[in-house]
Design brief:
This is Putative ARM repeat superfamily protein. One of its GO terms (cellular component) is nucleoplasm. This protein is mostly helical. It has a domain of about 140 residues: Leucine-rich Repeat Variant, CATH 1.25.10. The longest helix is centred in the middle third of the chain and has 22 residues. The radius of gyration is 30 Å and the shape is elongated.
Length: about 450
């Protein structure tokens, strides 16, 4: 009895002492102000903070928490094996640890960055986590069991029979199911991989796989910000195939997963060579150069601002590599049309992304400049960006440089002459771009076949 009373008294004294340290009569101290949202996703940061809670004092918790780089050296094999194991606890530990290893504050230069080369097999293990989710991404309730068409089986002229199988798919189906010509009885050995087989995941299991895939994509995204990892990732065919496949399925895939993949490829774009999809490197998903470009165009046409802005920036970076031109230029008209549409949006970041992409595309060749000048509203909207003006001066400068590139082609001058008054207005009203528009007007009026003699007299030619 005495011992229990003593313990109770001791606990009460401890509580009071903690209350005094917390700032007075039992009140807790004011928590430190939260810092800005870091590069990592919110969900991953919360999970990472939970991982470190047991190993670090509470004063160290928060977005600024980082694992020392020696952690990766000491646990390389364990991290990779944990990812490969598929066990929930091991997988969670590895993803949380990698989230902290790849963590980066805004405007923070990581001197202790963790290159992927330090952890052999890590990139493949992360991609396997994403592939595990991709393999079961289609919800099973949207796919009905196929059955053979029975209508017209015995008829000669209908053409049904065994040639065209019948699919009994509900109105909520999101994809076509490839069917066999004849219904065959399932063999017991096929139960392992059957949709409703022995090892099929329930809804909770699917949700866990999805969260793990998103966390793995977030780690890849964070690693892509580190210059040490760019070469490894951009030369890894499986990595690029997984990224482009997620972008290709952006309409049905998890939005955060698509966003992470998109931001990853934007970071890698300056070094991206689309010819890797036809190289001798082993392929896992069979993505071709054409499919990769179509995936970018699909994102570019999205209504989500973050996506089409990133896709425009991606196009502007990919076209810098001359080896990518043969794959992008066949879709130039479609690209120009969408980029000009983005110029009309009120969002300044969409305008900046579109101008940046058009600036690089206009420098490719004469055909690009001719197609851009012939695109309806292109010149009007470029002028609007300059006149408004855009809050970023560099965007206005690039818009003016695009117009100068267009006027360098003689075939474009009849189109641009209609905007001569607008060019002259900017020349005399805006000193920042007076030199550029003076050169534009000189090009328009200096050629014998470009303008009538009265205009030559006005501009002193």
């Amino acid at each position: 009895m005495f011992y229990s009373n003593f313990c109770h008294l001791y606990l009460e004294m401890q509580k009071r002492e903690l209350g005094k340290q917390g700032g007075g009569s039992g009140g807790s101290g004011t928590p430190a102000a939260k810092r800005g949202r870091p590069v990592g996703s919110t969900a991953s940061n919360l999970a990472a903070a939970a991982l470190a809670e047991a190993a670090a004092p509470s004063t160290l918790l928060g977005p600024s928490l980082q694992i020392h780089s020696s952690f990766a050296d000491q646990n390389t094999k364990r991290i990779v094996h944990a990812l490969q194991s598929g066990l929930k606890s091991e997988l969670t530990w590895a993803l949380n640890a990698l989230t902290l290893l790849s963590f980066k504050e805004k405007d923070d230069v990581r001197k202790d960055a963790t290159p992927l080369a330090k952890i052999p097999g890590l990139l493949d293990a992360l991609l396997q986590v994403i592939d595990d989710w991709r393999d079961i991404a289609l919800p099973k309730e949207l796919v009905k069991t196929p059955r053979t068409r029975s209508l017209g089986v015995n008829a000669i002229v209908t053409g049904f029979g065994n040639d065209i199988p019948h699919t009994n798919i509900g109105s909520g189906s999101v994809s076509e199911v490839s069917l066999q010509k004849k219904a065959t009885k399932a063999h017991p050995s096929e139960w392992w991989l059957a949709e409703d087989g022995l090892f099929n995941l329930d809804d909770e299991g699917r949700a866990e796989k999805q969260l793990c895939a998103v966390a793995a994509s977030n780690v890849l995204r964070n690693f892509s910000f580190m210059p040490e990892n760019e070469v490894i990732m951009v030369q890894h065919r499986h990595c690029l195939e997984t990224i482009f496949q997620c972008m290709e399925d952006h309409a049905t895939e998890d939005e955060e997963l698509v966003t992470n993949c998109l931001e990853t490829i934007v970071n890698l774009a300056p070094m991206l060579d689309l010819r890797i999809f036809s190289s001798s490197k082993p392929s896992y998903i069979k993505i071709t150069e054409k499919r990769a470009v179509q995936a970018i165009l699909g994102i570019l046409g999205s209504s989500i601002k973050a996506w089409h802005c990133a896709a425009a920036e991606l196009l502007g970076r990919v076209i810098i590599n001359p080896d990518n031109e043969p794959f992008l230029l066949p879709s130039a008209s479609q690209i120009y049309k969408r980029l000009v549409d983005l110029l009309s949006l009120p969002a300044v970041d969409a305008q900046a992304a579109a101008v940046g992409a058009l600036y690089n595309l206009a420098e490719v060749n004469m055909d690009c400049r001719l197609k851009l000048a012939s695109e309806r509203w292109a010149v009007d909207r470029l002028l609007k960006v300059i006149k408004t003006p855009h809050p970023v001066p560099e965007v206005c400068r690039k818009a003016a440089m695009i117009l100068e590139s267009l006027v360098s082609e003689p075939q474009n001058r009849p189109v641009l002459l209609a905007y001569e008054n607008a060019f002259a207005e900017i020349l005399f009203s805006d000193g920042k771009f007076s030199d550029t528009f003076a050169r534009i007007l000189f090009e328009l009026t200096s050629k014998p076949n470009s303008k009538v003699a009265t205009a030559r007299g006005i501009w002193g030619m």
